[in-house]
Design goal:
By secondary structure, this protein is an alpha+beta fold. The chain has five helices and 13 strands. The longest helix is centred in the first third of the chain and has 12 residues. It holds the Pfam family Peptidase_M23.
C-alpha cells in the first residue's frame, strides 16, 4: 500500500480542538487571481478581509490551501532573497492564539527552533513518526514561544498529547494567528527547518515529499 493510502486509512487524533478542525470553515484563496484582492487596500489588508469574511459566514476556522500559488511573501524579510518561492505546501489553520496543538500520532521531537525573521515560522517543531513501515515527519509552525520550553530533541510525544500552542503575531513570525501544518517524508539536509513555501519550478519533488496535510487532518471536501 502506498504512503498516501496508508495515511488516508489511518485514524489520527485531531491536531487542534475538534470544534475547529471539523467545524465550519472559511476556505481562503490567496492566489493572485482571488477576489479577495479587490477588497484589500492600504487600510484593510488581506488578514483583515479574512476576519471580515469569517464574521460574515460564522466560520470558526480559516483554512489556507495546500499547493496554492501565493504572492504574499515577497515583502517579508524571510523571502527577500528568494522571491521565486511562491508555492505553499502546507495547510494553514487559522484559529486564535493560545489554542492547543496535539500530536496526531506518537512521534519523536527531531527539530525545534525559534525562527524570528519577519515572515518566517517563529517557533517551529518537527516530529518524526512511524506508521506501518513508513517513516515521515509533521511540521508545526507559527507556535507560541512557550511551546519550546519543555521539549528537547528525542522526546517522545504520545498520540493525542498536547505539546504546543498557537502563537501570537508578536512571536509567530509576524502573521495573523494560525498553525502551518505540513507532512514531510524526507527532511534531507534540513536540521531545524523545512520550507513551507517553495519555488514552483520544483513542484513535482516538493508535492511528492510533502503530500497534502489533509491525509492527516481528514476534513471532508478539502484537498
Amino acid at each position: 500500500m502506498s504512503f498516501e493510502a496508508t495515511l488516508k486509512k489511518h485514524h489520527f487524533h485531531p491536531i487542534i480542538d475538534t470544534h475547529y478542525q471539523f467545524g465550519k470553515a472559511l476556505i481562503v484563496d490567496l492566489s493572485p487571481s482571488s477576489d479577495i484582492w479587490s477588497q484589500v487596500n492600504d487600510e484593510h489588508d488581506f488578514s483583515a478581509e479574512i476576519k471580515r469574511q469569517v464574521a460574515e459566514t460564522n466560520a470558526v476556522i480559516e483554512i489556507g490551501r495546500y499547493a496554492e500559488q501565493r504572492m504574499i511573501y515577497q515583502d517579508t524579510d524571510n523571502f527577500s532573497q528568494s522571491s521565486n518561492r511562491t508555492l505553499h505546501i502546507g495547510i494553514d489553520l487559522g484559529i486564535p492564539a493560545g489554542n492547543t496543538v496535539f500530536a496526531p500520532i506518537q512521534g519523536e521531537v527531531v527539530a525545534l527552533a525559534n525562527r524570528q525573521q519577519q515572515g518566517d515560522y517563529g517557533p517551529v517543531i518537527i516530529l518524526r513518526h512511524q506508521l506501518e513501515g513508513y517513516t515521515f515527519h509533521t511540521l508545526y509552525g507559527h507556535l507560541a514561544t512557550s511551546s519550546l520550553q519543555n521539549l528537547y530533541i528525542g522526546k517522545i510525544i504520545q498520540t493525542g498529547e498536547a505539546f504546543a500552542q498557537i502563537g501570537t503575531f508578536a512571536e509567530n513570525g509576524g502573521w495573523a494567528s494560525h498553525l502551518h501544518f505540513q507532512i514531510i517524508r524526507d527532511l534531507g539536509p534540513h536540521l531545524d527547518d523545512y520550507p513551507g513555501v517553495v519555488d514552483p519550478k520544483y513542484k513535482t519533488f516538493y508535492l511528492q515529499n510533502s503530500p497534502s496535510p489533509n491525509l492527516i487532518l481528514q476534513r471532508e471536501n478539502l484537498s
